[in-house]
Structure formats: structure tokens, C-alpha cells
Fold this protein.
Amino acid sequence: MAKKSPSKKSSPSAKIQPLGDRVVIKREESEAVTAGGIVLPDSAKDKPSRGKVVSVGNGKLLDDGTRGKLQVKAGDRVLFSSYAGETFKLGDEELMLMREDDILAVIE
């Protein structure tokens, strides 16, 4: 009888919990075709400044030792400045980590 090798379970996408007033955002995909029908290569695409909040920290530490509540929550669609945050990969996903101050607006 042949021994079965232990099966490796593929774990679901890893979870990330930002600290303080930081948020994790998944950037929206950029448009691949212009309004005129021209297909753009990756090098010519502008990185969109919109995305969806994946997770949020526990708030900014205030002078009195309490935590200030963040204005955004997981699932919000947001608009942020072009040069905001740090881009990183977690599994197959490309995410951004930025301070709540870098978020300009919530898109409803």
C-alpha cells in the first residue's frame, strides 16, 4: 500500500491588519481601451487614483491616549492622491497601504 503524501491546503488570501490610522486599498483596474477605441499598452496606462478599502487600522492615537475613529471603513470606494501610499503584493493581489489623510473622498 502506498503512503499518501500530506496534502497542502491552499490557504485563502492572507489577511492584513493595518496599524493606527492606516488603511489597505485595492486599486481599481485602469482602462485598457480609450474612448476612441485605441488599445493602450500597460506602459501607457495611467494608474487610477480610485480603489476599494480592504481593511482599516484601529484609529489615530490622540494626545489624551484615546483612539480617534477613522472616517472610512472596509468596502468603501475612495479617491486618493496619485502619489499616496506604498504599493505591495500580498499573495496574487497588488495592494496599497496609506494613511487616512491621503484619502481625498469617499465615492458613493
The first strand starts at residue 22 and ends at 27.
